[in-house]
Design goal:
Length: 125
């Protein structure tokens, strides 16, 4: 049963990362006029562990059992410093906000399509 929803769980995990990143970026933009504020960002890291170690005889072979664990790290950005020691670059933050919003919406649409496939498989309509 868990294999049936593993793809949807993976999409949900990535979507939740981008939602968290949108909130962090919005906080950076809100503090653009705060003196001495250092912006933060989230870093999405995949830690790949293999459940079964198989010998790969050709470098073009894919790993048949990759298990992905996701780790989210909060990092402080070291941008340029303004006259008030604020390091927020609003244009850069807006670009990251747009990128993260688009990724979040795309992942949600993918989840909806996966659920529609499951519904179709169950009901046959």
């Amino acid at each position: 049963m868990s294999e049936l929803f593993s793809h949807i769980d993976n999409l949900e995990e990535k979507a939740s990362f981008f939602l968290q990143r949108v909130k962090v970026i919005q906080g950076n933009i809100a503090n653009a006029d705060t003196p001495f504020y250092q912006p933060v960002d989230l870093k999405f890291e995949k830690l790949v562990r293999q459940q079964v170690k198989l010998k790969i005889t050709n470098p073009k072979h894919m790993d048949p059992f990759p298990e992905t664990k996701v780790s989210i790290k909060q990092i402080k950005l070291k941008n340029f410093t303004g006259y008030d020691q604020n390091r927020v670059n609003v244009e850069e933050e807006l670009a990251k906000l747009a990128e993260s919003s688009i990724m979040y919406k795309t992942l949600l649409e993918s989840m909806k399509k996966e659920m529609a496939k499951l519904k179709y498989a169950i009901t046959g309509r």
